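Box S2. Input/output pair 1.
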Amino acid sequence: MVQFSLLHPQNSKAEYMELTKEAQNDLSIEYICEALSEDEYERNSIRQILTSITCDEEVIAYRCDVFDDFLRFPKLREDLTSMLEKLADLREIERFQKDAEASSLWQLVNRLREMDGYVDCITQIKTTLENIDIHSRGLCELRDNVQKIYNESGFETLKSDIVDTLAKAQRLKSITLGVNLDALLRPKTVGVVSLNDKEFTDSGILKRFMKFANNNSELNHGNDVSGFLSFHPANPSTSGFGLGKVVTGAQQDVNQVYNSSLTGADPLSDALKKVVSDILRRTVNDIKAMLNKYVNINGYSFVMLMPEIVFYIRFAELVEKIKASGVPICKANVLPTSERKYFAKNIYNLKLGIKKASGENLDIVTNDFDFDDNRRIYILTGPNRAEKQR
């Protein structure tokens, strides 16, 4: 998706400045952020936007129009709120992809998950914006971009490919290991006996353990595991994928046995790390082939919109609460910066509006202000009993 923002028009040349700590304190930025959200990530995102300000009238008008759409359509906020969960998943996948320790197999699987989330986000935004009478330039351009992506990227085929490929990768539910012990009963070598398409359950394992322990000869003679077939709940229909196959003798799986010196290393964990990727090489190749068809599909561009969507949704929710408490709020009419004029009717401290919306019994006194060539300075006087804030 083309680099896009709901905070400013494309190719905007607006200049920004950061509010000082003193200015943030005077404007009660922290108080406002806490009133907007209990989530730390959301508060940090909103704070970054609030403290980076511009005087560019095009940007201000752009944001006012976008916010007006968010405020007018609760359905828009509801749908995009549900999409935030998918965007949060994409953000976590992005972090995982940057992990140098992640194996190539898991990176491929997470690339699939990213694409699946991306498809869901595109589909949901497209459906939502097509069914709401939005007016703002920002949301209209977002709708047009999403429609273009959806129509030109073969989304139906992509979704089908993702579902099929993920199904293959997710068939493996458990691995049966054979563990050789030394004279002190410490793990010495480990081999993979079978791959299974069902998970083992604690109760099943415990029952079989007790059955073995109650036998007169408690130990199995030799290393033939064919007698334990019932211990592997496999589905024969998946045999083509390699699942449910039990080796009838641990010695036949010598290529999957790993030695461990008795230095405290965990051969079970080491075996899993080394064996799984090799066993699933066919799955890895299938995933790679599928991904190569959609190499340019990237969901992280939507992750960049997440803080902006949070910003508009939380402020729209707050404004609705303030209006419900009887305190006036309106959309600003943006004048050209060159005019250096500001006119306000019934203005008040937003912090007081938040307190009243939260249930405090306040009598908020509003004021009118006109700033133009004839009136640039106002002096507010009165006793120190907080009336000046009202």
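Box S3. Input/output pair 2.
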Amino acid sequence: MAPINIDSTSTTAGPTAAVVVTPIKNALNQEVEHAPFTHPELLGEFPTKTYDPIPVLPYNDRALKADPSFKNLLADATVTHLEPKIGTEISGLQLHELTDAQKDELALLVAQRGVVFFREQEISIEQQLDLGRYYGPLHVHQTVAHAKSIPQVHVVENSLEVSEKRLETQLYRHFN
């Protein structure tokens, strides 16, 4: 973990030294603007609860049931392979409207292409959770921020406040 950036011009010594937040810059050394987070119900918090170890769960690979021609998933979709072996973008489908056969084919496509992008989705958080549950039990990650009322949701947020909170949080755990 990187140390906190301490103001080198501060005359105070010890733990009361002034902390100066350095603006985040991009590769061109330009300051990055942080947009406000638009979903306050999903603001990340670091969990204080611990969970039992994950038991061994039965595994059901949905891709094994898929039609390898992708006739259900891709029939009405526009498909763009971003690179020859990895990455596909699919347009013209809404994830919350997929049938079970389409979900199985999506599992096979992700297994083959590594990552699949769907833009402009009109899908609620509950529908996203339902889609995830189709593939198996959802996991609660104990050491990263998640939405307060939905611990299965890992929040990816790029704001200065969250960056500072992350630096202040101790993520190290020892297992003895």
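Caption for Box S3: The radius of gyration is 21 Å. Confidence is low (pLDDT under 50) at residues 5-14.
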